[in-house]
Amino acid sequence: MKDFYKQSVEDVCSHLGTDPDKGLSSEEAKKRLEKYGPNELAEKKKKTIWRMFFSQFTDFLIIILLVAAGVSILVGESVDAILIMIIVVLNATLSTIQESKAEKSLQLLKKMAAPMARVLRDGIVQTVPSREIVPGDIVILEAGNYVPADGRLIETVNFSVSEAALTGESQPVEKTTDLIDQENLPLGDRTNMVYSGTIVSRGRAKAVITSTGENTELGKIAKLLSEMEETQTPLQQNLEKLGKQIGMIILAICAVVFLVGIFEGEPALEMFLTAVSLAVAAVPEGLPAVVTIVLALGMYNMVKRHAVIRKLQAVEALGSVNVICSDKTGTLTKNEMNVVKYYLHPSIILDQEQIKSQKSEHIEKLFMGAILCNDSFITVKNGNRVTSGDPTEIALALAAMDYGFDKNELEKRIPRIHEIPFDSDRKMMTTVHEFEKKRLSFTKGAPDVVIKNCSKYMAPDGEIKVLSENDKNEIEQANMKMAQDGLRVLAVAFREIGDDYSELEKDLVFLGLMGMIDPPRPEVKDALERCRTAGINVIMITGDHKITAQTIAREIGILSENDMVLTGHELIEMDVEDLVKVVDKVKVYARVSPTDKLKIVEALKKKGKVVAMTGDGVNDAPALKKADIGVAMGITGTDVSKDASEMVLTDDNFASIVAAVEEGRKIFDNIRKVVYYLLSCNISEVVTIFVSILLRLPLPLIPVQILWMNLVTDGLPALALGVEPAEPDVMKRSPRDPKEGIMSKEIMTNVFIGGTILSVLTLFVYSWALLEHDQIELLRTMVFFTLCTGQLLHSLNSKSIKLSLFKVGIKNNPRLLIAIAGSFALLLGVIYLPILQNVFGTTNLTGKQLVVSLIAAIMIIPLYELVKVIRYRKKE
Questions:
Q1: Are 676 and 750 in contact, with CB atoms under 8 Å apart?
Q2: Any idea what the Cα angle at residue 155 is, between residues 421 and 373, rounded to 5°?
Q3: Residue 714 known to be catalytic
Q4: Nearest residue to 735 via CA among 421, 452, 316
Q5: Distance CA 829, CA 837 (A)
Q6: Which among 92, 172, 217, 832 is placed 20 to 30 Å from 823, CA to CA?
Q7: Crossing angle, helix 78-100 and helix 287-304, to 10 degrees?
Q8: Can you state the angle between helices 776-797 and 814-832, rounded to 10 degrees?
Q9: What domains can you pick out in the chain, each with its CATH number?
Q10: Long-range pairs of 380-387 with CB within 8 A, sequence gap ≥ 24
Q11: What tens digit of pLDDT does each residue of 759-784 get?
C-alpha cells in the first residue's frame, strides 16, 4: 500500500495486519524483524585513511612528478628525486587530513533515531529499543519524544509535531487522524502521518508504524547521501585539466628535443638525459603544494568572516558560484516568529511601533489575553530572554512584554484557575483567571472559529458594543488580508464569568487580531544587493507555504513581478528535463521535499550553473551534498546538514555567504596569478635550454639547479602572490564562466610572452659569458643567477594579470617583498657558500659578472610593463 495518508485507519491496520487496541504479538514482531530488518539506517562503507592517502596520487600532475622522480633516480640524480617526493607526500598528507574529517552524515542521521520507544504489544505497553520496531507496531507518542519510524496516526489528543528538520517548516504541525483524499501531497501537508526523526512538541498520540529503517523518509535521505557520488569542484577540474595540458606539452617538447638531438648525431643517452632535464624544467613541482597552502590560508581568512570551510577545494569554488539556493527559515529569516500587525475593530490596523505608542484599556486587555492564555516560558538571564514552548505563543508573549507586561509577574498577580487546552478540532485555547475580585476568561485561536463565538467587541475607547454580522464580515476580511500577506493570524477574545464554566467559549468579546511572521534578517537585503552586483542569482527554497514564501521573497527583493513560484506539488509532476526549461525563471520554491531540492540542483547544474545550496535541516543534506558548494548553518543547523556541506556559517548570517564568495573570487584570482607566475618561469627555463640545444651549446643548467629554482625561488614568491589583496572590482564583475579554466587563452599567451622575455634576457647573458669565458661552471652560474633573479622580479609583474605594476603598487603586499628578499639571499648563498657550491655546481661571480647578470634580470620589469600596456590598451 502506498500513500497511507489517503487510507482510513481501519484500512491501514488491516493492510498491516495489526490490532489498534492490542498491537502485534511478540512472536509476530520477531518474525517481522527478521523479514524487514532492524529499524536503523544502513551505513556506507567508509574509506580507510590509507585508501584516502593513496587516492591523492591519482592526479595527472602528481603522476608526472612521480615519473620525473623515478627517472631522476635512474640517471643518478637522487637529490632531485628526494625533493620531488617530499613535495608529493606533503601534498597528499594535507589532502588526506582534510578528507578524513568529511564523511559522517550517516552516523549523525543514526543519532536522530530514538534509542528507545513505547509500543503496544500483546495488549500491553512495552518499552523496546527503537531498532526493534517493525511495520504494524502501535507506538505511543508524547511531548518531547522522537518519532522512531514513519507511521499513520490512529489516535490524537492535542497533538502537534515539529517537522522543521525534515520539511523545513518552522511551525509545529497540528496532527489529526482524518483521511486526506489528495494526490501527490507534500510531506508537510500529510497531517495524519508522523515521520522518523521528528519531535513531538505537544500532546499525545498513537500511531501504527508503516515504514522502518531505509524505507522511512529519513532513510530515503540517508540512501540518497550514501549513493551520491562526490562531485569535483571547478578548481579540481581546472587543475586536472591543467596537469594534463602540461603533461602533453612536456612529452611533446621532450620528444622533439630527443629527435632533434639524434638527427644532429648526438649520443642517444646524452639526449635522453637532456630530455629529462627539460621535463624537470617544465613541471611546476611546487604547484600542488602552493595551491594547497593558498587554499589553507583562504580557509583561515574565511573563519575570520564567520565561514568554516570543511573541504579545501571549496574555498576557490565559492568564487565561481553564480546561483545560491537558500533555505528561508533561519537563513534568510531569523527563525523566530514576531507579531508585526494588529487589527482592532472597527478598521484600525497598527504595526509594532504604532501599537507601543497607544495606551488604552482595550490594547492592555488584548496583550493580557495574549500573555495569560499562553503556555510558553520566558525567563531573563544576564539581560537576555530565554524562551521555550510553541513559537507562536512565544511570539505573542514577547509582543506583550515589549508593550510593557512582565509575563511571570502577571501570572502571579492574575493566576490561572481553570483552562480548556487547545485541540485541533476546536482550534481554540481558553484560560480562566482571578482578576480584581472578578473572574475573566481569555480565548485565543483561529480567527474564523473565535469570531463565530463572539457576540460583542471592545471599541478603542473601552466600550463594549454589539458585534453585528457586518462587523464580523469586516473582521473576516481583515483576517484574509493579513493571511494573504503571509502572516499567521490569531484572534484574542475575553469575557467575564461567574461560577459556571460550561460555556466559556460562547458569547465572547472580540479584542483583536494579531498577525505574525518569521521576519527577514536585517542584513539580508544588503547581502542580496551585493549578490546582484556580483551577477549571482539567489533562489529561495522552503518548506513553508507558498503565500508566506512569496511575502518574504518580495520583502527582501528576491521575487519580482515576472518571476515564477513553484510548489512541491507542481514539482512532483515535473521531471528534471521539464524543470530545466523553466528553472531560470523560478525564484521561489515552496512546500518542497528532499527529492525536490535535489531535482532543483540537478536542473540548475544541467543549465551549466555553479550552485551553492544553503540549508540547516536533515532534508537539506542530499541537496547540500549534490550542489557544487553545500553551505550549512552553524547555529540552527543539524549535524547532518553540517557534515554533508563544504562550508558552515558560524553566525547563520546570509551576508557571511557573500563575504565568503568575495574571498573565494580573490583566491581564484590569486591561484591564477600563482599558476601564471610558475608556468612563465618554467617556460623561461625550457626555452633557455631548448634554444641552447638547437644552437649546439653546452647545457646552460643542470637538473639540480632547475629543481632548486622551481622549489625555492618560485616557491616563496608564489606563496606570497597567493595572499595578494583583492582587486577593486572583485565583486563588481560577473561570475567566471565555469567552463573557463585557470589558463585562459589570454593568460596562456601572457605565459609564453613572459617566459620568452626572461629566456631572451638569460640567453643574452649566456652569449656574453661565452664570449668572455670558457669555464662551464661559471657560464652556468651566470645563467642560474640571471634566471633566478629575473624570476623573482617577475613575481612583481604577476601581482596583476592585466593592470600595470605602477597602478597596483608594491606596498600593498609586504609578504611578497620579504619573499623576494629572502629568496635572493638564498640565491647568493647557493652561489658563494662553498658547501652549497659543491651541491649545486656553482662558483663565485666577480663584480662585473654580477652587474651584467643583475641588469639583464631587472629588465624583465620594464619590458613586461610594455607588454601589459600594449595588450591593455588594445583591449580597451
A1: yes
A2: 10
A3: no
A4: 316
A5: 9
A6: 92
A7: 30
A8: 180
A9: 4-43+108-227 (2.70.150.10), 240-302+668-875 (1.20.1110.10), 307-334+521-652 (3.40.50.1000), 338-517 (3.40.1110.10)
A10: none
A11: 999 999 999 999 888 788 999 999 99
Task: State the pLDDT at residue 106.
Answer: 38
Cα–Cα nearest to 18, from 110, 152, 145, 127 = 152
DSSP for residue 341: E
What is the spatial distance between Cα 865 and Cα 845, in angstroms, rounded to a whole number? 29
The predicted model gives 164-169 an average pLDDT of: 72
Residue whose cell numbers read 638531438: 261
The answer to whether the beta carbons of residues 801 and 749 sit under 8 Å apart is: no
Q: Which SS3 state, helix, strand or coil, does residue 322 take?
A: coil
Per-residue pLDDT band at 90 (split at 50, 70, 90): low
Residue with cell 640517471: 75
| Cα–Cα distance, 866 to 797 (Å, whole number) | 11
pLDDT band at residue 102 under the 50/70/90 scheme: very low
Give the cell for residue 111. 543519532
Beta strands 454-458 and 199-211 are unpaired
Which residues are paired to 445 by β-bridges?
428, 491
Least confident of 235-249, 568-582, 647-661: 235-249
Closest CA to 628 of 646, 640, 651: 646
Query: Locate cell 549534490: which residue?
Result: 626
C-alpha cell recorded at residue 836: 652549497
Give residue-wise pLDDT tens across range 128-148. 988 899 999 999 998 878 899
All three cell numbers of 178: 482524518
CA-to-CA distance for 866 and 854, rounded, in angstroms? 20
* Alpha carbon distance 85, 64 (integer Å): 12
Displacement of CA 831 from its chain's centroid (Å): 50
Share in percent of the chain as helix, strand, coil (round to 5): 55, 20, 30
| Catalytic residue (choose from 137, 327, 544, 669) | 327
What's the CA gap between 600 and 256, in Å, rounded?
Answer: 50
d(CA 461, CA 472): 19
The CB density around residue 45, as the number of other CB atoms within 10 Å, is 6
3-state secondary structure 260-319: HHHHCCCCHHHHHHHHHHHHHHHCCCCHHHHHHHHHHHHHHHHHHCCEEECCCCHHHHHH
**The C-alpha cell that represents 532 in the structure block:** 546582484
The torsion of the CA quartet 830, 835, 837, 841, rounded to 10 degrees, works out to -120
